[in-house]
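Before the break, one more example. Copy the sequence into your notebook; we will annotate it together after we see the structure.
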Amino acid sequence: MSKSKDAVTKISKTPLHDEHLSLGATMVSFAGFDMPLQYQGIVEEHLATRESVGIFDVSHMATLRIRGEGSWQFLQHILANDLEKIENIGAAQYSLLLDEDGHIIDDLIVYNTGAEFMLIVNASNAQTDFDWMIQHCPDDVEIFDESERTAIIAVQGPEALEVIAELAEEDDWDPPKRFHLAPLTMVGGANMLVARTGYTGEDGVELIMHREDAVAVWRVLMSFENVNPIGLGARDTLRLEMGYHLYGNDMDRSRNPIEAGLGWVCPKTKTGYIGAEAVAKARDEGCKEKLAYLKITGGIPREGYPVLDVEKEIGTIASGSHSPSLGVGIATVYLPRKFAVEGTKLQIGIRKRRAEAEVVKPPFYKK
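Here is what the structure looks like once it is written out:
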């Protein structure tokens, strides 16, 4: 007897789920979690983050901790970026997890906390990432999935650091440098790690804490007049304006870093990591397609819309939306290399009409 879809589909909740409901959020299923899509509206939330402070519940992201004598060598072997760049305690790095063919299993941030390494990975890939790491893990390394014990709140925007400074127990608290993290005790006693990272293009931090502290921290953040709760909708438009990749749209297991415009994450000087030979080959020989960035006039592009050269379809939109900051449509698309050149004029099929598009250099939004 077959089981119904409802019987086999489990939707998880972050520790802030009830807070979202109390704020009237529109909830949607995302990466196996019931998450807020929007509270007041995507455009309003987007602009609030650009102009003041937005807070995001990103507790759905998975947190992995790597410990043991061989941790550095292990991560150097399975991650594309060079850990030599974050040898100092507190440093962080954007990196990729690749398979033997150089295809992207996931993108992530790795933090050197001193006693261990902490990885924040995409929720939709958490089990895949964990299984891949276990498969390649040596005996002198341990991997712990701390996701169910951890909550993460992103605090982003031009006034974000001022808010955190007001909440720090230390009167003379200074934020960590960009792509670094440091311990923080908030007024009231909540202990956490504060990472100067984010997914919006604005300055700000991500607060990594024990799950049981999340509600109290969220509420004290919400007590500030200039702080606004932000849902997944604005999170997507903010990251797209910056040209930041979204796994499953702008890259996946069928793409390599060179195609995806992430060759900078795979230093030419680093060898020996899983997928290194395939990346080097793609870099030397070139790829048939490359991820390109389109600015569109006369319509809003959506995932799956056709991209046309005259009447010939040459690609489909990977990520697409209206840019609240710029007032135009913006999108990403994999195009044959000859079209993926800045200044190329194309068209987007939007239902039964065409919108004009031009290949541009990212980011779309510049301060």
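The longest helix spans residues 126-136. The chain has a mean pLDDT of 96. Try to locate both features in your own notes.
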